[in-house]
Amino acid sequence: MNLSGILVVVPPERLDACAADLGTLPGVEVHHTDPATGRLIVVQEAADVEAEMAGLLAIKARPHVRAADLVYHHFAIEGEEP
Amino acid sequence: MTSLRRREFLKSSVAAASAATVGLPVSQAVLAQAKAAEAGWQWDKAVCRFCGTGCGIQVATAGGKVVATKGDPDAPVNRGLNCIKGYFNGKILYGADRLTRPLMRMKDGKFDKKGAFVPVTWQQAMDEMERQFRKAYAEKGPAGVAIIGSGQYTIQEGYVAAKLMKAGFRSNNIDPNARHCMASAVAAFMQTFGIDEPANVYDDIELADTIVLWGANMAENHPILWSRITDRKLAAKATQVVNLTTYRNMSSDLADLEIVMTPSSDLAIQNYLARELLARNAVNWDFVKKHCVFATGPADIGYGMRPTSRFALDAEKDTQAKELEVTLSKAEAIAQRRNPGEKVAQKNRTSAGRHWLISLEEFKRGLEPYTLDFVAELAKGDPDEPLEKFKAKLVRLADLYADSKRNTMSFWTMGFNQHQRGVWVNEQNYMIHLLKGKHGTPGNGAFSLTGQPSACGTAREVGTFSHRLPADMVVDNPAHRALTEKTWKLPAKTLNPKPGSDIMGILRDLEDGSVKFLWVQVTNPFQSSPNANHWFKAAREMDNFIVVADCYPTVSGKVADLVLPAAMMFEKWGAYGNAERRTQMWRQQVEAPGEARTDVWMMLEFAKRFKVGEVWGEKPLPGLKTDGFEDGKLPDVVEGAKAMGYKPEQSLYEALFATPENRKFAWPDPVAKGKANGTVKALGENWFVEKALFEEYAQFGRGHHHDLAEFDVYYRDDVRGLRWPVINGKETKYRFVEGHDPYVKAGEGFNFYGGAFKALPTGTLDDVTEPKPTPLAGKAKIFFRPYAAPVEQPDANYDLWFCTGRIIEHWHTGSMTRRVAELNRAAPSAVLYMNPADAEKRGLKRNDTAWIESRRGKIRMVVETKGRNTMPRGTVFAAFFDESLLVNKLVLDAIDPISRETDFKKCAAKVYKA
Question: Exposure check for chain B: N or C terminus, fewer CB within 10 A?
Fold first, then answer.
């Protein structure tokens, strides 16, 4: 199981709606928001790197998402708990 | 703590740490929690392993493993962010199929080229390597052995490889995969400015009003720089982004102006732009007159293919024949002021780089044919776009470049570099920026990006090319050899004056039997090189010995005779240099698994096996003919070596690497802060190999426009890499410009001080008329370069353009990004992007399997008519990461005859239902 912290940037006026939308994606939780700049920190939980990549691409593809970039990656080594 | 609670706790702390990294306001309590989750972890600064952007990262280790990575908030390149490839930085160390033991082809307990891979000891592996190397070296001399290296070499790896080959074995057959990637950029820098590497920096993104991409899909291949461009556009509404490309890609989504062009028509478009600048009197004449000269070179330079059809498949022979003679198309004839249908012998195919001064009038005469009508008809890449609409786009592009008030940045990567006229097309972009006087100043410049993390820092600056020595020096310049021999403490005439084989040359040498020993390091050339079927056959069927050092079993490993397990990025000490001249270093974080070792260790151990007396004796060198050397041989320099204090029985390890000066750099060293050193440990030594070699290397550049700081400076907590030249501890943002570059004196304004090709004959557009060289110290050259058609074009049989490239999730051949164990389970395969009408015409639809076939081979791919790339009719695209498909079997091995860089971007193919 891997965890990653992702910075998502949306138009500030759409922050709440985007936060709610992102929260519906599998394994994605919105943790912090900055209403002034339209920035959100989401945490994505995924089984492996492929799922993490697919997840990040899915976030990028959501409506009104201007940017989504990886910030922090904590990963499990095969057969070990993180 | 239950595992569920532990997971919730970890998520909160990942969120808090991420917020803190990018400067999102979070409370002290939340931060304290994040710290608690990381208890027992050790964070250290490092660099991303992937592209040439050079993002700073932080790496966390615990219990001898890397457990987490994050964007470095203090890194000016990426400011805490990583692109999607950041997921691989840590995880990539732990793929299930990491190589941990040497593997050799064996039969009956002995090496056998037809045998199967069997694990062997390092002793067995090195013994066989030595035996095979000696055999090839005795039979063929220095030209019979080769190394294919990498733009992913650390600086120290590249330095050891170059010194071992050039000073030790006296062979110039060392060339990096970077030849495939930016050799055209290098040659254009050398010809235009007399010195390599960009004048500008990434900071210019935030200062630019116009940003033009020429054959650079930055949204996919340089995502962090792309997010800076996106931010710039959001922050400054007047910013205009232009995307010039041969098909609609992800970078078009942000672009204000998208220009879909035909392959190689960038040569014509740039001449149209220059013609417009002159016609509109939008040239910065003050700058041009003070700092520039006009130049050109021959057009009949061939395409870098073999001059013989001896090795060509029957289907390849018509393309290959054009190496010697070309029949001009109508467009080429207009562009080169000749007659359509004229047959032109390629007389300058081995002297493609020569060039001479021309007058402004000749320069204008060269540009004259490039009218809007002519260029638009030639360049329009989407057959379904109306010509008038396309013309309007070209005019708008000219408006943007002509506007003196707009800060203008041009960026390019492989579209320009992987081009049969790659040097020319690079030079044309400098032409435009120099005509405007917009180069190397804040917000203005022509900027060549790179695709690999140390293509600049190692391949170029260290000089791991077949013609290069450190700090931009070259092997065929006697003064450069003498200076290198002095710095390396070599007897005079040790260095080989004849440029070696470039990467395509080495592969062809394997095929024709002139190279018999090849060592591949930090790269995967049998997957990444074009026309691959030839080289597979050469590797497996010819009498040669191929060693591949790598961390995972790659295509190259599979065709090798011996595979050596290599340490990866964070399992060794190293340094990389990115595309904005920023040198960055990292400490070894963890130990390599099993018996994997650093490439530096492998080379130093190998060097121990050869004595000065055997390699510095007289050596045959077929084809050598140069002043100061007997024809066909390198002289015996052993007596000279003795006079310098060397002993003939001394090993190359002692003579070149573990020298008394280098042994003064003691290990352990406080800069390590307790981190280990796998190279030193495996050698059983007490000198700090990577530090000593860096300092030895840095002597070449200091005082010669390439000044690097001291090793320890790069490890300081407050340093995130430094852009050279670093003088008196200060980095340089803009080169050649007064007030920024310490090498430019007060009152000069600009000084293009590079020393290469700075005395030229004079002539007309067609040839030299006055051979006497004119000196041009301090000047940059504005080149006229004509349009030339691609050597292979679609015809009735192979009726489509075929282009290859990269995609965001995978990097190059995928040997790292596809190797994480879980990825292999649901291996995503490269797809063939097609226009829906092209597919339909062939009875194909999305997700169908189709054959794609060129003169060189065929493969099956899945058709994709939607998604990230939208192809114009007549063009198809595939990425080259997928080793199960080997897209490069199809690609033509034509290269730029000046830079020797391959053109992966255009050949002809046909597609039909499988």
Answer: N
**Best interface-test mutation with A: which of B3, B8, B12, B14 has the largest number of A CBs within 10 A?**
B14
Counting beta carbons within 10 angstroms of the beta carbon of residue B815, is it exposed (0 to 12), middle (13 to 18) or buried (19 or more)?
Answer: buried
| Helix (H) / strand (E) containing B509 | helix B503-512
Q: Per the structure block, which two tokens stand in for A2?
A: 């891997």
Q: Find the catalytic residue in B90, B158, B437, B451.
A: B451
Q: What is the least distance, in Å, from the CA of A17 to any CA of chain B?
A: 19
Output the DSSP codes for B407-453.
Answer: -EEEEESHHHHSSTTHHHHHHHHHHHHHHTT-SSBTTBEEEE--SST
How far, in Å, CA of A56 to CA of B88, rounded?
14
Burial label for B580, CB within 10 Å (0-12, 13-18, 19+), is buried
Burial class (CB in 10 A: 0-12, 13-18, 19+), B115: middle
User: Which of B12, B3, B715, B51 lies closest to A72 in space, CA to CA?
Assistant: B12
Chain centroid to Cα B908, Å, comes to: 25
Going across the sheet that includes A39-46, the strands are: A28-34, A39-46, A2-9, A67-74, B65-71, B56-62, B42-47
- Here the tokens at position B72 are 């470095």
Provide ipTM, 2 decimals: 0.96
**pLDDT tens per residue, range B591-626:** 999 999 999 999 999 999 999 999 999 999 999 999
Q: Is the CB of B87 less than 8 angstroms away from the CB of A43?
A: no
Q: Both tokens of residue B832? A: 């063939």
| Whether residue B451 lies in the annotated active site | yes
Distance (Å, whole) CA B505 – CA B376 = 37
CB A18 within 8 A of CB A42: no
**Residue B828 predicted with pLDDT over 70:** no
With residue B401 as reference, give the H or E element that holds it. Answer: helix B387-402
Provide the β-strand partners of residue B750. Answer: B737
**What distance in Å separates the CA atoms of residue B455 and residue B661, rounded to the nearest whole number?**
28
Nearest residue of chain A to residue B17 (CA atoms): A72
- Model pLDDT for residues B856-866, shown as the tens digit of each residue: 999 999 999 99
Where would I find the beta strands (DSSP E) of chain A?
2-9, 28-34, 39-46, 67-74
pLDDT above 80 for B881? no
Q: Is B182 a catalytic residue?
A: yes
The pair phi, psi for residue B772, each rounded to 5°, is: -65, 125
Contact flag A31-B19 (C-beta cutoff 8 Å): yes
Per-residue tokens: B388:
């008038």
Cβ-contact B443, B465 below 8 angstroms = no
Alpha-carbon distance of B80 to B57, in angstroms, equals 8
Locate the DSSP E strands across B471-533.
517-521
Query: What is the pLDDT, as a whole number, of residue A3?
Result: 95
Strands B408-412 and B110-111: unpaired
In tens, the pLDDT along B618-648 reads 999 999 999 999 999 999 999 999 999 999 9
B181 part of the active site: yes
Question: What number of C-beta contacts closer than 8 Å exist between A and B?
Answer: 136
Q: Rounded to 5 degrees, what are φ and ψ at B366? A: -60, -40
Which residue, chain included where needed, has tokens 């203005």? B444
Contacts of B107 (CB under 8 A, 6+ apart): B114, B115, B116
pLDDT tens track for B783-824? 999 999 999 999 999 999 999 987 777 766 677 666 544 444
b/e B357-372 (16+ beta carbons within 10 angstroms → b): bbeeebbbebbebbbb
Contact, A61 vs B868, CB < 8 A?
Answer: no
Nearest to B526 by CA among B536, B512, B518: B536
